[in-house]
Amino acid sequence: MTANVADGGMSLRERMLHAGLFELIAVMVFAPLITWVTGKPLHQAGALTLTLSCIAMLWNMVFTAAFQHIERQRGWRRTLRVRLLHASLFECGLVVVMVPVIALWLQVRLMEALLLDIGLILLFLPYTLVFNWLYDRARARVLSGRLGRLSNP
To answer: Which of 29, 59, 102, 144 is 20 to 30 A from 41 (CA-CA)?
Structure first.
């Protein structure tokens, strides 16, 4: 699959890179944080973080593809408002799956898992916004370099 440069679409390979980078950085930052907050061993928090990361990575690829489709259909530009909408809807979708997984993994009540997830969401919203903004800036530079090389053979 190739990206359609004109509409800003991403190939499957690029979606996998985008999601993989996002989750790798998130695991490195948030596993120690979960250990600190819950008092659980790092290996348990790390395994939970990796599991949540895999779930989130799949959701990221599916959700972002659907969001970009709607974005193109409606002619939206990636303004701060659109980025906030994307990040907020993405995190809301994860709550439905994440809370039961957290509760089972850490052997806590659903309410405790929800509170932990809310804390993670409050941290992930700015993380998601900043990561995607930086990724889009880097991507635009790479694509403009490729287009420049194609137009000047």
So the answer is: 59
Range of the domain at 22: 10-143
149 lies in a domain? Answer: no
Measured from the Cβ of residue 121, the count of other Cβ atoms closer than 10 Å reads 18
In a domain? residue 39: yes
In a domain, 110, yes or no: yes
Q: Is 77 domain-assigned? A: yes
DSSP 8-state class, residue 138: H
From CA 97, how far away is CA 56, in angstroms rounded? Answer: 9
5-14 pLDDT, tens digit each? 334 578 889 9
C-alpha distances out from residue 135 to 15, 16, 19, 30, 52, Å? 11, 13, 11, 20, 22
State how far the alpha carbon of 48 is from the alpha carbons of 33, 61, 100, in Å: 12, 20, 12
d(CA 119, CA 126): 12
The total number of structural domains that make up the chain: 1
pLDDT 10s digits, 98-148: 999 999 999 999 999 999 999 988 888 899 899 999 999 999 988 887 666
Query: Which pTM was predicted?
Result: 0.64
List the one residue out of 74, 30, 66 whose CA is nearest residue 49.
30
